[in-house]
Amino acid sequence: MKTHARTTVSVIFSIIFACTVPLVGQPSPDDAKSAQKFSVSSIQIQPMDPGDVPIPPDFAVSVYENLIVQVQKTGKFQHVYRSGDKAAADATDLVTLRTIAQSFNKGSQKKREVTTVAGATSITLKVQITDHTGQMLVDRDVQGKVRFFGENLRATYDFSKKVATIVRDTTF
Amino acid sequence: MSLRNTVAKWSIWARGLLLLIVSAPFFFFSAAPARSKTSDATQPVPTVVEPNAKLVIGGEAIKNNSMGTLSVVGSSLQFATKKATVDVPATTILDIFTNEDSRQDITGAAKVVTMAIPYGGGRVLSLFSHGVDVLTLEFTDANGGFHGVIYVLPQGQAAPIKKQLVAMGAKASVPLEEAAQTNK
Description:
By secondary structure, chain A is an alpha/beta fold. In chain A, 43% of the residues lie in helices and 24% in strands.
């Protein structure tokens, strides 16, 4: 009786083993999906070019750092390189994201919260994404603002969220 | 009698000598940690320390808007929270900016509560704010990657840190004196 049970278990086990082994070698649907996902695998983000617009340095830094985080969050690129990163030189299918200041209005958190209608902070930047040959893939003006509540720097977060949406919707 | 006195004196001397011989190693070993303490003293001691600093953005390992201690340790600017520490060597700093700003006295959950105050009481509370210093750094990592970090410090605390960092080799496009004048 015992021997019979053992034989049954070993047969079931070998059937399961035989079924699963060929699957191990095949790429999983997730792998295939990620392979399709990264038609362009790398992006490099440049610091904001203030141009002639007097933008405080903390806003410029905040735009850059927020862009890095938000573009990473899109999951569209295997590598998000910072400006100047030596590793980006090896990437063959690199696209570059540049931001150029168009207008800036530093509002006031106090005014916003006291009056509701006044004191909005807004920042408008030209967003350009070019491929490795220099061909323009995206060229748009994007505005980030904080209208009611929150600190002035939150306008840069709003801006980078909008840029991340553009990056997500763009086919590279 | 005198012989007995002499013997007693000698025995006291002998005991003293024995005590000295026995205790000498203890003196020697107890001196050793003192030397190591001296060597500890040669380790970098923070020269400028600001315990109420807020990292607004740019701390890779540290979450945005974390409170911590900002200090100049050795030749680096260090921001430490209970969980993590971020070091920026002064020589990697490309630019330092200081400017003044103001922050609301009531923030976070308390801010939401104030919205419920009738007759615009919450708006009145928004009038209360305090001055702060904003310290912005631009620096590069080991790969040459460009980074930026923003700290908010109590008023008047950014200038000493900038001064110290510039003295240690950090670059600053706006000299400290000029920055102080523009802040006024």
